[in-house]
Amino acid sequence: MKISKKALGILLLSLIFVLSACGNSDSKKESTHDSHSDSGSHEEMDHSGSAEVPEGLTESTHPKYKIGSQVIINASHMKGMKGAEATVTGAYDTTAYVVSYTPTTGGQRVDHHKWVIQEEIKDAGDKPLNPGDQVLLEASHMKGMKGATAEIDSAEKTTVYMVDYTSTTSGEKVKNHKWVTEDELSAK
């Protein structure tokens, strides 16, 4: 069978197109922070985590939402979070920070990431940090976060919660999500 150069060229271009499309498939989990769409990629955000908490973190003695409580998440840190029904799996008293940083893995700067807590900042001590302070992150909520230098955008003394929920957009079950603050939850 004799194939013309033109037919061979078309065949090769078609093959390259198909292979490049396959190699470009996007298998990322849903994890974009809705409220941060203009501030860098949050596609590497870990939805689920372990139940382990940072050393020195104190359980709340009188949380508004006790462990096992059913709540509604009013925050949109990630796609599918706002409006999700959740179960409280931990409640801790600490200072929560909004931070901006450039991932250690490179890429776009992440602006206004919610939340990193006092115990997830290297050598933070017991005193709250101030907006503008430069810190070293020990949190690993996202790829490239641990070890990154960050700037404190704001600080809030509060109770933070670890929750289990099901994404309202993907149906993905999220376990031990860290962190939501008390004002980002409401009773079910």
Automatic annotation (TrEMBL):
Which PROSITE patterns does this entry report, sorted A to Z?
PROKAR_LIPOPROTEIN
The record's region (Disordered) falls at 27-61
Return the InterPro entries for the record.
DUF1541
Q: Where is the composition biased (Basic and acidic residues)?
A: 27-49
Query: What organism is the protein native to?
Result: Bacillus mojavensis
Which parts of the sequence belong to the DUF1541 domain?
A: 68-118, 131-182
Q: Which residues form the signal peptide?
A: 1-21
Which key words are in the record?
Signal
Protein's name in the database: YdhK
